[in-house]
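During the second year of the project, the team shifted from modelling isolated chains to modelling whole assemblies. The rationale, set out in the original proposal, was that interfaces cannot be judged from single-chain predictions alone. As a representative example for this report, we include one of the complexes processed in the last quarter. Its constituent sequences, exactly as entered into the pipeline, are reproduced here:
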Amino acid sequence: MAGATVEDHRKKERVTLPQEIRSGETTTRRAGRAGQAPARRRRQGPPGEPRNLAYLYILPAVVVFALFIGMPLVRTATFSLYEWNGLGASTWVGLDNFQQVFTDPQLRGALTHALVLIIFYSAIPVTLGLLIAATMMRARRMRGLAVFRVLIFLPQVIPMVVVGIAWRQIYQPDGPLNDLLRAVGLDGFARPWLGDYTWALPSVGLVGTWVGTGLCFVLFLAGMAKIPRELYEAARLDGSGPLREFFAITLPAVRGEFAVALTLTIIAALKTFDLVYVMTSGGPGRETTVPSFEVYQRAFQFGQVGSAAALALVLTATIFVVTVLVNRIGAGDDDTTPNPRRRLSRRAAARQEAR
Amino acid sequence: MKSSLTRIGNAEPGGPGRVRAWARFAAAASAIAILAACAPGDDEDDDSGDGGDGGDTSETDSGESDESGGSDVQTDPSQLGEITLTVWDQEVRGGQAEQIEQLNAAFEEAYPNITIDRVSRSTEDLSTTLRLALTDAEPPDVVQANNSRAEMGQYVGSDLLLPLDDYAEAYGWFDRFPESVRSLAMYSDDGSVYGDGELYGLPQMGEIVGLFYNKTKLDELGLEPPATTEDFDAAVQAAQDAGEIPIHFGNSEPWAGIHEYGFVQNQFVDAETIRDLGFGRPGSSWTSEDNVAAAEEIVSWVDEGYFVDGFGGIDYDTSWQAFAQGDGVFFVGGTWLVADLQEAMGEEVGFVLTPAGASGQNLVTGGISIPWSIPANSDAQDAAAAYIDFITNAEAMSTVTETGNLPVVDAGSQQVEGLQAEVFDAWARAGEEDLLVPYLDYATETFYDTITAAIQDLLAGQQSPQEFLDTLEAEYTAQVGG
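Output from the structure prediction step:
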């Protein structure tokens, strides 16, 4: 929900700019090649016409944005300044709700849990996805590769609620996971996973890892498929091993995918709701509460709309900031760091000189 | 105009053009802000063209309906003319769905001038959408409103539900429903006092959390169903010595803990104290000696291993299903499980009230099914009241029974057998002897969250009994202003 806000906003920005740039370009061109047919036709219209037309093009998007994202966002911001149960009259409380978000141990706990989940939802899947994709690229001729690809991506296709219910069964004290542990003699490790104060949050996080890896894997696989084979051949001729190839060619080439994967998975981690709702309801105690779950509880269960709105806004802002930062890292570096081709050739040149 | 066009045209992304885009975005946002900027809860007032805040407006509304209700309550639905009655219910499961479908059909047959427009949703969907529906200018005519403070209490406080006392008098509901049942849907008119005041809804079914036991296993142990705490302790100990799981329990869903804790508390604490604590009324304390004893007792059950291993990670459903398949001698559960357990276990399962402890009474945690209420803004209130009367009258109670549910009244006079008969007897006895105590999560709007997390903490050894009780006491005293 919050993620959509950020993305749509970005999209909007991109839609707007090219429109204007293009209309600007035509103006410049008109100045340069005066007397040509298209320019003459435009001159017949009132001055500034293309620009107004551009607004017309983006109007539908702006209306949809304003109605379904802008309006609710502003309304939420309004709610967050009041104490309101969603029914009757409301009381103006200023920024008290926001202060509460950062001081209430229960809400702070929820935010902390979301940060922990980033490791499971984002860090591990991105790393795993990268490694699996790189391995598969090297083993292109292995048989049954398509099957593996499908298997790794499969969790992405299953609705999260189904995933949650299935894993809840797996984690039961008499469930398959504990059965497996006991079968291999690790009786000491068997435990009621979702009822264990230490392990409940990692257990939920692990499901996120299981789901997220597939997405990262497919992204990286697509990115790596674009890398010209010659680069690897050149590297091999230069005597670099698999590790060198990975760090010198593969990794820099998929930086864009890296940023996308990181953005998507971090957003998924911060806005987790379904898994927690289905698997633990925030328990045991409050060990697995997350911000979205608290928002739901407050808004729909306890009638604390103001505090729910404040938390939702903080969550949205966090996601927005994180997305901007991650995209900076992903896109901004492109100009400053040498691309793999350049780096390789530079090394080759150095070697030549040495000879 | 033209110059600005050129400037934008030459602008790089991220240059002035970007700034302008942002400026435009900000302008649009502030336009939206102006549109949206009014205090929440004021919209309805704008619609009705009435000044003042929401509370005042609706108060006059309900005042008017009081008058009209008081002077001329029309109890003959056939005299009401053509009416479409919109009913929002959550009777979507098995026997519950069956009974309401039958009753709706019977009602429409008896009063052809009234058409029922039924909207049924799951319990959770209903409670999340009801908030918006009730504040609408044209709300449904009959709704099932959960009797907790966070729902019915807030609706009453915002004058969104109609007090039913006038109808209760006209239809004789005060005689028909014992006070212990009625009090579960009674609030003061500002919604702050629960269990007292005016009647805001009527339930169809009752529910109690009692003790299911495995008859075969208890016979093998040579024991009778426990009637007192000593009996129960002995039975649990005997079960453990015989290598059985004494009590099957799944506390993964937080609410299950409320039932288990109530089961223990009822054996140590007197009814009045539990009711004060449950309803959030002043006069009692969570940290009293007997409450400490109850908290220590349930912790000792954990330490002794009376509960099944790993109960903190077991689902409620998994737990009762395991009990149905013969795991465990006892299971603390609600009457909503009767149909399922009877089907799975047949003659093997029995049901008794909570064993009698210190108070000498078999106090039992229980309540009512989600009561049927009338929104204050409904335009067919007489018909709505007639409908509620129809689905809770003696004939309706038979229908409720036939479809496998526990009728809230007349349970003693129904023809049932087996487990159902034991449950009906228990419910009837609880009514006659005034044994019913409320669920513990009614005390405040957020007490459910507090107590469920606290019970999980207590049973997992994360909190000592004293810390546990202090947590509850803090929220209780904040509520009663003590």
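DSSP finds 22 helices and twelve strands in chain B. Chain B has two domains: 56-205+369-409, 207-368+419-480.
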